[in-house]
Specification:
By secondary structure, this protein is of the alpha/beta class. The protein has one domain: Oxidized Rhodanese, domain 1. It is built from 5 helices and 5 strands; from the N terminus they run βαβαβαβαβα. Strands 1-5-4-2-3 form a 5-stranded parallel β-sheet. α4 links the parallel β4 and β5. It is globular, with a radius of gyration of 12 Å. The chain starts with a strand and ends in an 8-residue tail after the last helix.
Length: 106
Amino acid sequence: MQYTLLTPSELQKHMSAQPLLIDVRELEEWQTGHIKQAKLVPLATLVTKIVTLAPKLDTAIYLYCQHGRRSHNAALMLSSLGYSNIFELEGGISNWIESGMPCQTE
């Protein structure tokens, strides 16, 4: 299984390219704060929705959750489906916020 862990500042550098950024938390967590460009795709629905979001197996996919456990599982799932360009936010959105990065609520 190959995927790359990114620090919040490393992920921030990728944001200008409008990456496919997926928040694998639940709606209630999403509403407390999320990264602006992220799409909410709860982990339980990721396998069924990823084909629409990333039809090509080499699409760069960036994942995060609250602390990193679910995004790690998401990376494993995507890898098992054949996706090869996976990135995970180290420490999840908690680390993102602690690093002073912007968050939004909706």
